Amino acid sequence: MASSPFHSTADIKGATVLMVGAGGIGCELLKTLALSGFSDIHIIDMDTIEVSNLNRQFLFRQSHVGQSKAKVARDAVLKFRPNITITAYHANVKDPDFNVDFFKQFNVVLNGLDNLDARRHVNRLCLAADIPLVESGTTGSLYMSREKRSAMSVSLNQPRRPIPFALSQALHQRQLMLITLNLGSRYEAAGPWFVHCIVWAKDLLFAKLLGDKNQDNDLNVRSSDAASSSKNVEDVFERRRGEEIEQYGRKIFDHVFGYNIELALSNEETWKNRNRPKPIYSKDVLPKELALQNGNMDNNHASDDGLSVSAMASLGMKNPQDIWSVKENSTIFLEALKLFFTKREKEIGNLSFDKDDQLAVEFVTAAANIRAASFGIPLHNLFEAKGIAGNIVHAVATTNAAIAGLIVIEAIKVLRNDTKSYRMTYCLEHPSRNMLLMPVEPFEPNKSCYTPLSLEINTNRSKLKDLVEKIVKAKLGMNLPLIMNASSLLYEAGDVEDDMIAIYEANLEKVLAELPSPVTGGTMLTVEDYQQELKCNINIKHREEFDEEKEPDGMVLLGWTQPVPAAENKNQSVGNGASTSDATMAAAESEKDDDTGIVSPLKKRKLPDDSDISKSAVETKNHKQLQVIDDEDDLVVLEGNLDGFKKRRL
Ligand SMILES: Nc1ncnc2c1ncn2[C@@H]1O[C@H](COP(=O)(O)OP(=O)(O)OP(=O)(O)O)[C@@H](O)[C@H]1O
Ligand SMILES: [Zn+2]
């Protein structure tokens, strides 16, 4: 490291760099920057250190848990490089303080982020400030905790035309093809059906029982069909005044694992070509008398810290890598529920799932496993379930270190204005022909990369549902059920259960129903297909009249071009690009719309948190913004058919 050919050069020493993110990549990056001779580094990270970070975010120690990542990282590096300047901001990069002027003070910006939302934001600011950005990311083999990470990318823009995100988007498009080719085997290994169980346990059951009661939830859709039942379904989930907690737990158990399954079974049509699930009632798996006599809450050392309460501890179960029997899962399920209602009662109604909340993870693991048992899906241990529920990529420190090195190499090229040498580099999990790192020339920047599609339509006459059918399905080539504004969900490509599709469709209806008609002042609609191959923001504007000859469809869609040439793209559903506004389309032909960006179909995703939503609400003022889902780990997985890739790119 000391012999780095760059370490003493003036362009490095004189540079002011901004790093965004001090996590897995960020820690490595800060260290490498400092050791490479950079002497004025600014670092933004909004997070505090968690125990789960310590295995790879090596600047952090146990004693730092709870402290600002940016500040601790700064202090750690200053210990071995005391003479450089590191400025730490414990803040969200989306804070208005980090405006264009703030960005203008840097020579280069380096991302070490884990979500698309923040990446997009940084990209926009870099574009506005005309500052080059080096983008990076890593991904694990999704939902497969056994395997190591599979790929990473480093991409960067050109200094005078700083459109880095377009590069990574272009990457996605390419990437997707490769992923598509491999879907079959990946899915078999990943066990998508268990992922469904986790989603059900986390987003439906956990949210219903412990989260916001007013939030819509599809968990009892089925039961409400049973109109003949005199029982008010809502009541099932409400704990009655004075109701024993054990009794309440069993009532929930029997309702969701027993009654609801029986109800589903009563629809013969659904099960014609499928394995029928088995209803599970608590009396079948647990002793008749209340099951919790083994539970010993004293093991929880009644601390103030709610996050340390544990059903496993209370039941004397220690190993998170044991796969529990159905009986054990049922016991944990009831015990966890009991602990929530006894030890953490104040939080009930406000809880949202957090992978660092032990009790929440235990509850979700147990519930997912019981459901899995009912459907004949193999059970998983808590460690694996936590990985899926928390979207945890089991990151590998060495890969982060390699990426950090590549980022610094690209940053140095930027500082030297060595534009010809820019590379995007993939780090391959399965080196091909002894090639671990695969550098490729960056794709052309995308000029329209942050403009959403714009749609003009008479919103009085056209029902928005038709619009979605017409525009989204025909023009954008999304022939699949659409997702809109769902809560946190995981999906996989391929078969999706009917009930999931029903949920998506109900959600779509709901979102559309909430749109104003006619649209006044403009409406932003974000649409994705459930395979997440396409995602676009559509800016809808009302227009009264259309030229029947030029605009026979009675609408104009601007900004859309086909993301990938059809010939290269057999494996995707891509629109035919035909348009009512061919002239405009042709004008835009050389551009790709970034917000129609393609992301991996395997990505985890989540809704922006409340603060994001309120912020964007403010940003759009009287515009109604329907913000959907952002991907975390906006990444690429390179597998298999590298020949095809190289032929075109190298
Ligand atoms: N909008 C944002 N503003 C500032 N920092 C951000 C923003 N979004 C993400 N980050 C930071 O980017 C870093 C991403 O790093 P990484 O994913 O390795 O860390 P982590 O999220 O703590 O780890 P893991 O995802 O494995 O739990 C995090 O430290 C996170 O706080
Ligand atoms: Zn992260």
TrEMBL record:
<dbReference type="GO" id="GO:0005737">
    <property type="term" value="C:cytoplasm"/>
</dbReference>
<dbReference type="GO" id="GO:0005524">
    <property type="term" value="F:ATP binding"/>
</dbReference>
<feature type="binding site">
    <location>
        <position position="449"/>
    </location>
    <ligand>
        <name>Zn(2+)</name>
    </ligand>
</feature>
<keyword id="KW-0862">Zinc</keyword>
<feature type="binding site">
    <location>
        <position position="69"/>
    </location>
    <ligand>
        <name>ATP</name>
    </ligand>
</feature>
<dbReference type="InterPro" id="IPR030661">
    <property type="entry name" value="Uba2"/>
</dbReference>
<feature type="domain" description="THIF-type NAD/FAD binding fold">
    <location>
        <begin position="10"/>
        <end position="449"/>
    </location>
</feature>
<dbReference type="InterPro" id="IPR028077">
    <property type="entry name" value="UAE_UbL_dom"/>
</dbReference>
<dbReference type="InterPro" id="IPR035985">
    <property type="entry name" value="Ubiquitin-activating_enz"/>
</dbReference>
<dbReference type="Pfam" id="PF00899">
    <property type="entry name" value="ThiF"/>
</dbReference>
<feature type="region of interest" description="Disordered">
    <location>
        <begin position="567"/>
        <end position="623"/>
    </location>
</feature>
<dbReference type="Pfam" id="PF10585">
    <property type="entry name" value="UBA_E1_SCCH"/>
</dbReference>
<dbReference type="InterPro" id="IPR019572">
    <property type="entry name" value="UBA_E1_SCCH"/>
</dbReference>
<comment type="pathway">
    <text>Protein modification; protein sumoylation.</text>
</comment>
<dbReference type="Pfam" id="PF14732">
    <property type="entry name" value="UAE_UbL"/>
</dbReference>
<dbReference type="InterPro" id="IPR023318">
    <property type="entry name" value="Ub_act_enz_dom_a_sf"/>
</dbReference>
<dbReference type="GO" id="GO:0031510">
    <property type="term" value="C:SUMO activating enzyme complex"/>
</dbReference>
<feature type="binding site">
    <location>
        <begin position="21"/>
        <end position="26"/>
    </location>
    <ligand>
        <name>ATP</name>
    </ligand>
</feature>
<dbReference type="InterPro" id="IPR000594">
    <property type="entry name" value="ThiF_NAD_FAD-bd"/>
</dbReference>
<feature type="domain" description="Ubiquitin/SUMO-activating enzyme ubiquitin-like">
    <location>
        <begin position="455"/>
        <end position="546"/>
    </location>
</feature>
<dbReference type="GO" id="GO:0016925">
    <property type="term" value="P:protein sumoylation"/>
</dbReference>
<keyword id="KW-0067">ATP-binding</keyword>
<comment type="subunit">
    <text>Heterodimer.</text>
</comment>
<keyword id="KW-0479">Metal-binding</keyword>
<keyword id="KW-0547">Nucleotide-binding</keyword>
<keyword id="KW-0833">Ubl conjugation pathway</keyword>
<protein>
    <recommendedName>
        <fullName>SUMO-activating enzyme subunit</fullName>
    </recommendedName>
</protein>
<feature type="compositionally biased region" description="Polar residues">
    <location>
        <begin position="569"/>
        <end position="583"/>
    </location>
</feature>
<comment type="similarity">
    <text>Belongs to the ubiquitin-activating E1 family.</text>
</comment>
<feature type="binding site">
    <location>
        <position position="45"/>
    </location>
    <ligand>
        <name>ATP</name>
    </ligand>
</feature>
<feature type="binding site">
    <location>
        <begin position="53"/>
        <end position="56"/>
    </location>
    <ligand>
        <name>ATP</name>
    </ligand>
</feature>
<feature type="binding site">
    <location>
        <begin position="114"/>
        <end position="119"/>
    </location>
    <ligand>
        <name>ATP</name>
    </ligand>
</feature>
<dbReference type="GO" id="GO:0046872">
    <property type="term" value="F:metal ion binding"/>
</dbReference>
<dbReference type="GO" id="GO:0019948">
    <property type="term" value="F:SUMO activating enzyme activity"/>
</dbReference>
<feature type="compositionally biased region" description="Basic and acidic residues">
    <location>
        <begin position="607"/>
        <end position="622"/>
    </location>
</feature>
<dbReference type="InterPro" id="IPR045886">
    <property type="entry name" value="ThiF/MoeB/HesA"/>
</dbReference>
<feature type="domain" description="Ubiquitin-activating enzyme SCCH">
    <location>
        <begin position="333"/>
        <end position="386"/>
    </location>
</feature>
